[in-house]
Amino acid sequence: MADGPTITTIAERAGVSIASVSRVLNGLPTRQETVRKVMAAADELGYVRNAVARSLKSRRTHQVAFAMADVGNPAYLAMLRQIQPVLKAAGYRLVLHSTDAVAADEIDVLHSLGERYVDGLIMSPLRVTEQHLQMLRAARAPVVIIGSVPEGTPVDNVRADSRTGVKLAVDHLHALGRRRIGMVNGPLDTVPGAARGAAYREALETLGLPYDENLVEIGDFYRAEGARAVAELLLREPGVDALMCANDLIALGALDVLRAAGRRVPEDVAVVGMDDTDLAAASWPSLTSVSLGSAERGKAAAELLLDRLQHGDREPRLVTVPPRLAVRASTTGEEPYPASRAAGRTRADKREGGRS
Amino acid sequence: MADGPTITTIAERAGVSIASVSRVLNGLPTRQETVRKVMAAADELGYVRNAVARSLKSRRTHQVAFAMADVGNPAYLAMLRQIQPVLKAAGYRLVLHSTDAVAADEIDVLHSLGERYVDGLIMSPLRVTEQHLQMLRAARAPVVIIGSVPEGTPVDNVRADSRTGVKLAVDHLHALGRRRIGMVNGPLDTVPGAARGAAYREALETLGLPYDENLVEIGDFYRAEGARAVAELLLREPGVDALMCANDLIALGALDVLRAAGRRVPEDVAVVGMDDTDLAAASWPSLTSVSLGSAERGKAAAELLLDRLQHGDREPRLVTVPPRLAVRASTTGEEPYPASRAAGRTRADKREGGRS
DNA sequence: ACACCTGCTGTAAACGTTTACGGTGTTTGG
DNA sequence: CCAAACACCGTAAACGTTTACAGCAGGTGT
User: Fold this and answer.
1) Any CB–CB contact under 8 A between A256 and chain B?
2) Which of A175, A229, B116, B262 has a C-alpha 20 to 30 A away from that of B23?
3) Structural contact between residues A237 and A264, judged by C-beta atoms closer than 8 angstroms
4) Under an 8 A CB cutoff, do A71 and B84 touch?
């Protein structure tokens, strides 16, 4: 692990100045003979350019950060899967931050933008405080927010439409004849929690169904929390015939509890999840889930950031990704893998998985 | 996005030299009065230290890279989930690389170590060529390899024991009375593919079962490829009563095809996967799977790297993580979520999921 | 009163690049 | 044959830090 060669080493060996070495390495016009000598010296020495020194001078690091609430959540991972290749193709490295949904950590990430070790940031905050907004306005590098941010905040913004998403799900349940539709939500002080709760209420209203507090249970966005919440809901309202869950993990928890309680899914209780993660398609029974386009949102965010890195001062843009309902067995009882599909290999199939 | 303040700006405003500013910011002994002035100036200016300049001088970037074959694979994500917090706690940022299992990309990552934008690297290569080894010997920063690497390679190494893992699974199937145990493997020129294939053969031998080529099908480590492979295997060997799959994705593909073909799992055909990913516990029916300790391996790798970053020249270490069989419905037919567990919230439960 | 130490601070060099500028040596045109 | 134009190259400054070293003021011991 001896100290590697620098352009100075090369310059000496090739008998030219460091300026010439730099020019050759950057492909600037230079005499053939010089190019040859420099290249030869660089090859012999096994030279690799020092990215740190280069960044200091050029004020570009070719790194971009992605801050997610939790590396463990499949919805964020779906974003990551799209963001990574887009950035890689453009020559950027990806720095990962996991904020564990702690506001202080998110602020910290925003603050660390000032350290200039990245050229830009994609962030998906769970809660958006006044301090967040303040730091966003003062940010020293381009930021793209995945999630909702107030009108006028000077950042690119990619949103899901969970309002329509919840409506799709509730309408679906209603169409199946369900009338006692419960909701299992995450904390109401989170952006998604608040939006999904309000959307549920609204969807019921549109259908002319009464809003019943007893049918709503608040927990957290985890599987075990979902299970706990559903257990309580069942105790309080045994008549519930459908559950709208605020994400897939909660829904999986719901399935656990319903099975343990001897309730059949979907005959007795239909269940809908949200985010349409890998887990939904793989679960038992397979889970009907509202896709909020995690993958598309990730891709859009990466593209917005790249665009902004290239054309600096552009109007901030807002991209909204439409939701889609993935209907599976937990509401209809029908298994979604017919023989024809299972045996054939499609592009979409391939994207579902990976190597090991 | 105006140019931020530097220590020079602070020095001017505080009426001291840049050296003093640096000393104060780094907590080196300084007169109280000076400390006060510098801190005040830094606060007023909203100073944030430039990480790039700092790295250039100190030759430390406080970044570590993790190169995985594919961001889409849950087994690697399980590693990522462990690596991230360990590094974060030690003050390191994580740079992600996805090599798409292309050897050239892996070499590229190794090469780019010379750019010195990271202090170390954790890598999990699918194939290990002579060129890999050569670059590992010449690496300009500490490397930890997750996967097998020849004796004597000067890097820390974390291994799974897939040999024992496969044996656990085959023994389990044998104990359940299965005698026509097939194997669906990935490419034999990959490290895991080769190891798992050999282990399968060996396990059969130990049990006194004949090795039958017709019971083995090679595909790739994807769900759709697994489905295709199993479809062919079923056609050729309708009598197969168990399938040992080289990873969970293949096993999920197997479940798809078996269901479509009207074979009951596990009554007609028992299925075992490998890696014990989230998908295994969530699948339908839930999947018995050999855990190769992805999480533990990730954690061990991160810890080895940190240790190496602190005590530079240490003997290379080898950590082997033992396998474990997670028995679920795809072999025994018994559902693994009793009511008592589903309703309670444990630390382990919480780790399974995340926020959304 | 002098040498000496102590505590603090400033000057300057260094990390490895990129790049503006000016200085060569050669070519071109009159 | 000389001036101007040109192609190429080297010198040096800059990016924002850290840190070795020297200098300076004030206090201590003799």
Assistant:
1) yes
2) B116
3) no
4) yes
Q: Dump pLDDT digits (tens) for B274-312.
A: 999 999 999 989 999 999 999 999 999 999 999 999 987
The HSE-up count of residue B71 (CA atoms within 13 Å, CB side) is 22
Q: How far is the CA of B44 from the C1' of D22 (A)?
A: 32
pLDDT digits (tens, 9 = 90+) for B183-200: 999 999 999 999 999 999
The nucleotide closest to A11 (CA, C1' atoms): D10
pLDDT, residue A342, reads 39
CA distance B106 to B292: 23
| Residues of chain B contacting residue A279, judged by C-beta atoms under 8 Å apart | 278-279, 282
Rounded to 10 degrees, what is the CA torsion of A43, A46, A51, A56? -80
Calpha distance A84→B138 (Å, rounded): 28
Q: What's the CA gap between B33 and A337, in Å, rounded?
A: 74
pLDDT, mean of residues B246-257: 96
Whole-number Å distance between alpha carbons of B85 and B83 = 6
pLDDT digits (tens, 9 = 90+) for A153-200: 999 999 999 999 999 999 999 999 999 999 999 999 999 999 999 999
Give the position of tokens 């930890």.
B144
Residue A65 exposed, middle or buried by CB count within 10 Å (0-12, 13-18, 19+): buried
Q: How far apart are CA B177 and CA A298, in angstroms?
A: 48
Segment 83-112 of chain B within 8 Å of chain A by CB: 84-85, 88, 93-98, 101, 111-112
DSSP state of B151: T
pLDDT at A337: 54
Name the percent of chain B lying above pLDDT 90.
Answer: 87
pLDDT at B1 > cutoff 80: no
Nearest-neighbour CA in chain B from A56: distance (Å): 6
Three-state DSSP class for residue A152:
coil
DSSP characters for A160-175?
E-HHHHHHHHHHHHHH
Nearest C-alpha in B relative to A346: B224
How many Å apart are CA A317 and CA B229, to the nearest integer? 46
Q: What is the pLDDT of residues B45-54, one digit of tens each?
A: 999 999 999 9
Q: What angle do CA B255, B227, B249 make, to 5 degrees?
A: 70
Measuring from the CA of residue A31 to each C1', which nucleotide is nearest? D8
Q: What rounded mean pLDDT belongs to chain A?
A: 92
Q: Tell me the domains of chain A and their CATH numbers.
A: 7-49 (1.10.260.40), 63-161+295-322 (3.40.50.2300), 162-291 (3.40.50.2300)
The Cα–Cα gap between A263 and A266 comes to: 9
CA of A25 to C1' of C23 (A): 23
Highest average pLDDT, of A219-223, B147-151, B184-188, comes from: B184-188
Measuring CA to CA, which residue among B293, B279, B300 is closest to residue B83? B300
Nearest CA in chain A to B84: A98
